[in-house]
Design a protein that fits this description.
single chain, alpha/beta, Rossmann fold, seven-stranded mixed sheet, two-stranded antiparallel ribbon
Length: 171
Protein backbone atom coordinates (compact mmCIF):
# COMPACT_ATOMS: atom_id res chain seq x y z
CA UNK A 1 0.00 0.00 0.00
CA UNK A 2 1.51 3.30 -1.01
CA UNK A 3 -1.61 5.41 -0.69
CA UNK A 4 -1.05 9.11 -0.04
CA UNK A 5 -3.42 9.64 2.86
CA UNK A 6 -2.61 13.35 2.99
CA UNK A 7 -4.99 13.94 0.09
CA UNK A 8 -7.80 13.07 2.54
CA UNK A 9 -6.80 15.64 5.17
CA UNK A 10 -7.73 19.30 4.93
CA UNK A 11 -6.50 22.17 7.03
CA UNK A 12 -8.28 25.13 8.57
CA UNK A 13 -6.14 28.07 9.68
CA UNK A 14 -6.99 29.84 12.93
CA UNK A 15 -9.28 27.07 14.20
CA UNK A 16 -10.21 26.73 17.00
CA UNK A 17 -7.99 29.66 18.03
CA UNK A 18 -5.93 32.23 16.12
CA UNK A 19 -2.54 30.84 15.13
CA UNK A 20 -3.68 27.21 15.20
CA UNK A 21 -3.74 25.13 12.01
CA UNK A 22 -6.43 22.46 12.40
CA UNK A 23 -5.94 19.15 10.58
CA UNK A 24 -9.38 17.84 9.65
CA UNK A 25 -9.64 14.09 9.09
CA UNK A 26 -13.33 14.23 8.09
CA UNK A 27 -12.55 13.63 4.39
CA UNK A 28 -10.56 10.51 5.32
CA UNK A 29 -13.45 9.22 7.44
CA UNK A 30 -15.91 9.97 4.63
CA UNK A 31 -13.98 8.01 2.00
CA UNK A 32 -14.75 4.35 2.71
CA UNK A 33 -11.82 2.92 0.74
CA UNK A 34 -9.27 5.37 2.15
CA UNK A 35 -10.52 4.86 5.73
CA UNK A 36 -10.40 1.08 5.27
CA UNK A 37 -6.83 1.33 3.94
CA UNK A 38 -5.79 3.61 6.82
CA UNK A 39 -7.13 1.14 9.39
CA UNK A 40 -5.40 -1.72 7.54
CA UNK A 41 -2.08 0.13 7.57
CA UNK A 42 -2.37 1.03 11.25
CA UNK A 43 -3.32 -2.53 12.19
CA UNK A 44 -0.22 -3.86 10.40
CA UNK A 45 1.98 -1.42 12.28
CA UNK A 46 0.56 -1.96 15.77
CA UNK A 47 0.30 -5.73 15.41
CA UNK A 48 4.06 -5.92 16.05
CA UNK A 49 3.38 -4.63 19.59
CA UNK A 50 1.21 -7.71 20.24
CA UNK A 51 -1.37 -5.70 22.22
CA UNK A 52 -3.91 -7.11 24.66
CA UNK A 53 -5.64 -3.74 24.91
CA UNK A 54 -5.92 -0.54 22.89
CA UNK A 55 -6.47 2.83 24.53
CA UNK A 56 -8.16 5.62 22.56
CA UNK A 57 -7.53 9.20 23.66
CA UNK A 58 -10.55 11.53 23.64
CA UNK A 59 -12.01 12.15 21.21
CA UNK A 60 -10.67 11.39 17.77
CA UNK A 61 -8.46 8.64 19.16
CA UNK A 62 -11.72 6.76 19.80
CA UNK A 63 -12.27 6.65 16.03
CA UNK A 64 -9.01 4.74 15.59
CA UNK A 65 -8.98 2.50 18.63
CA UNK A 66 -12.45 0.98 18.23
CA UNK A 67 -12.07 -0.43 14.69
CA UNK A 68 -8.48 -1.45 15.38
CA UNK A 69 -9.49 -3.33 18.54
CA UNK A 70 -12.12 -5.13 16.52
CA UNK A 71 -9.65 -5.93 13.73
CA UNK A 72 -6.99 -7.19 16.17
CA UNK A 73 -9.46 -8.96 18.49
CA UNK A 74 -8.19 -7.15 21.56
CA UNK A 75 -9.80 -5.05 24.25
CA UNK A 76 -10.46 -1.33 24.04
CA UNK A 77 -10.72 1.38 26.70
CA UNK A 78 -11.07 5.15 26.62
CA UNK A 79 -8.98 7.85 28.24
CA UNK A 80 -10.96 11.05 28.59
CA UNK A 81 -10.78 14.54 29.94
CA UNK A 82 -11.39 14.82 33.67
CA UNK A 83 -14.91 14.23 34.95
CA UNK A 84 -16.29 12.35 31.94
CA UNK A 85 -15.97 8.73 33.09
CA UNK A 86 -18.16 7.04 35.71
CA UNK A 87 -16.89 4.93 38.58
CA UNK A 88 -13.49 4.96 40.19
CA UNK A 89 -10.92 6.74 38.06
CA UNK A 90 -7.28 7.74 38.11
CA UNK A 91 -5.98 10.90 36.49
CA UNK A 92 -2.71 12.43 35.34
CA UNK A 93 -2.25 16.16 34.80
CA UNK A 94 0.16 17.68 32.33
CA UNK A 95 1.21 21.08 31.06
CA UNK A 96 -0.21 22.57 27.89
CA UNK A 97 1.22 25.52 26.00
CA UNK A 98 -1.16 27.80 27.93
CA UNK A 99 -2.36 26.08 31.10
CA UNK A 100 -2.83 22.49 32.17
CA UNK A 101 -4.72 19.43 31.00
CA UNK A 102 -5.81 16.24 32.71
CA UNK A 103 -6.49 12.78 31.31
CA UNK A 104 -8.48 10.21 33.22
CA UNK A 105 -9.14 6.49 32.95
CA UNK A 106 -11.26 4.03 34.89
CA UNK A 107 -9.08 2.13 37.36
CA UNK A 108 -10.24 -1.22 35.99
CA UNK A 109 -9.71 -0.23 32.33
CA UNK A 110 -6.54 -2.29 32.11
CA UNK A 111 -5.15 -5.16 34.12
CA UNK A 112 -1.63 -5.32 35.53
CA UNK A 113 0.77 -6.71 32.97
CA UNK A 114 -1.46 -6.18 29.94
CA UNK A 115 0.30 -5.04 26.78
CA UNK A 116 -1.22 -1.73 25.68
CA UNK A 117 -1.02 0.43 22.56
CA UNK A 118 -2.27 4.03 22.79
CA UNK A 119 -3.98 5.68 19.82
CA UNK A 120 -4.81 9.25 18.91
CA UNK A 121 -5.41 11.17 15.73
CA UNK A 122 -2.53 13.65 16.10
CA UNK A 123 0.85 13.73 17.81
CA UNK A 124 1.54 17.42 18.32
CA UNK A 125 3.47 18.48 21.44
CA UNK A 126 3.25 15.00 22.97
CA UNK A 127 1.78 16.16 26.29
CA UNK A 128 -1.50 14.26 26.05
CA UNK A 129 0.17 11.11 24.74
CA UNK A 130 2.84 11.07 27.47
CA UNK A 131 0.24 11.76 30.18
CA UNK A 132 -1.79 8.81 28.86
CA UNK A 133 1.33 6.62 28.88
CA UNK A 134 1.91 7.58 32.53
CA UNK A 135 -1.74 6.92 33.39
CA UNK A 136 -1.71 3.45 31.83
CA UNK A 137 1.54 2.63 33.65
CA UNK A 138 0.04 3.87 36.93
CA UNK A 139 -2.80 1.40 36.33
CA UNK A 140 -0.22 -1.40 36.08
CA UNK A 141 -0.17 -2.12 32.35
CA UNK A 142 2.82 -2.10 29.98
CA UNK A 143 2.69 0.52 27.26
CA UNK A 144 4.25 -1.11 24.22
CA UNK A 145 3.76 1.78 21.82
CA UNK A 146 1.56 4.49 20.35
CA UNK A 147 0.09 5.10 16.92
CA UNK A 148 -1.23 8.27 15.34
CA UNK A 149 -2.82 9.22 12.05
CA UNK A 150 -0.81 12.44 11.88
CA UNK A 151 2.43 13.67 13.40
CA UNK A 152 3.16 17.40 13.43
CA UNK A 153 6.93 16.89 13.34
CA UNK A 154 7.83 20.55 13.89
CA UNK A 155 6.24 20.48 17.36
CA UNK A 156 8.66 17.73 18.44
CA UNK A 157 6.09 15.62 20.30
CA UNK A 158 8.13 12.51 19.54
CA UNK A 159 10.77 13.79 21.96
CA UNK A 160 8.26 13.79 24.81
CA UNK A 161 6.92 10.25 24.45
CA UNK A 162 9.13 7.46 25.74
CA UNK A 163 7.77 4.47 23.80
CA UNK A 164 8.01 3.41 20.15
CA UNK A 165 5.40 5.00 17.92
CA UNK A 166 4.08 4.99 14.39
CA UNK A 167 2.36 7.77 12.48
CA UNK A 168 0.58 7.28 9.19
CA UNK A 169 1.34 10.83 7.98
CA UNK A 170 3.82 13.51 8.97
CA UNK A 171 3.60 17.25 8.40
Amino acid sequence: MSKDFKQFVRTFPDFPTPGTLFYDIAPLLANGKAWHDAIDRLSEKILVFNPDMLIGIESRGFLLAAPLAYRLACGYAMVRKSGKLPGDTKSVSYELEYGNGTVEGQIDAVKPGQRVVILDDILATGGTAQATIELVRDLGAQVEGCAFLIELAGLKGRQKIDVPYYSLMSY
